[in-house]
Every structure is written in structure tokens, then in C-alpha cells.
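re the bet — no i am not wrong, look at it urself. input seq straight from the record:
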Amino acid sequence: MTALAGTRVVGGVHAAARAATCLHYDDAVALLDHVCRPRRGRPRIALARVLALVAAREPARARALAIDVDTASRSFRETEVRLGLRRAGLRAATGLVLPGVGEVDLLVEGVVVAEIDGFAYHSERAEYVRDRRRDRSAIHLGHPTLRFAYEDSTVPRVLGSVQGVLAANPEPLPFAPRVPADVRVQVAAIRASALRAENRRCARGPATQR
């Protein structure tokens, strides 16, 4: 913490901790998901240091944030959807990498891939083509993809769509015949990680916004 021309200046860790204490709860989770996510070429704000400062003021909030923050999330809307799915009792895993597909936004119940497409990163023709190739690769691995434009990615819409697919297909679809045995083993391990209990845990419900 320093002073500059009479103005109080704080470092990133202190600023993040103050914001995480003052913001509505879901906004605090989204903020920490974002600022504590490792990024190439930018110093990382250590989540543990932020939570230690939050705990000095609000221990219960710090404990909840330790459960709900997931720095694998890549956007505020993705955080919102993840929390909503988990509050509905679904296991929603973030940041998993499917072979031949790449990193997916969310893998729900080890079955459904949910992708939240912001216009900034999905507006060019090359990205449009790439996304559809990824979707085809995912279905060959047994995972249907639900792709949502930002405007359609509200929690009720995503939750309703995901629940509809899971009602019809509670288990992954069969592998396409061309999928090699070693890839099938990799995918089975990824599904197992998506089904961990931690991917269902949510410390606070939507009513506990402060």
C-alpha cells in the first residue's frame, strides 16, 4: 500500500480483497475467478492471499469463496452459469480438455458440454468454423454440445436446456467407431474427474447475495 500525490494506492491483492468483501456474493466469485486466473504475461494475484485478507474481515465469506471460486472459468457469465448449475444439484466441471476438442467451458454431469459464446471471440468466420468442428469432435466422443450466444446464456435457459438433454441422455453417448482405444481411456478419465463431488459443491445459494 503506497501514497501517490496524496492519493491512496493499493496493490492488486488488497484491491481484490476489498472488492470481494464489498461486492454482492456472486459478483465477488466472478471477480476472483477472473483476477486470480493465471494468464500469460501478467502477474497472478494469489487467491490464498486474497482470501486471507477477506477472512480478517469476514471469515464466513472467505470460507464460502474458497469453495465457490474456480479460476478455470473464463468469463463472468460462465461463472454465473456454473454457480446456477451447481445450485440446481448438477456437477458442472470447468476447464477440462477433451482430446480433439480442446478446453470446454463446462462439462455437466460428465455428459453435456455447455459453451458460452461471447461475440468478441466467436464472431469471425474462422472461429465459426472451428466451433462447429469442435462440436462434431465432441459428439464423436459421446458428448453432445449445447452452444449458447451470450444473450441466450441466462441461468434458467442454460439449466433448462441441460436438464432436457440429461433427461433424454443421462449417460454419455457411445463413442464413434473411429475413436481409438487410447483416446477412449483418456475420455473416461476426464468423465470421472467431471463427476467429482467438488463439482457440485456450492457454498451459498442465490438468496445470500451479500
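see?? DSSP finds nine helices and eight strands in the chain. told u. also The radius of gyration is 19 Å. so pay up
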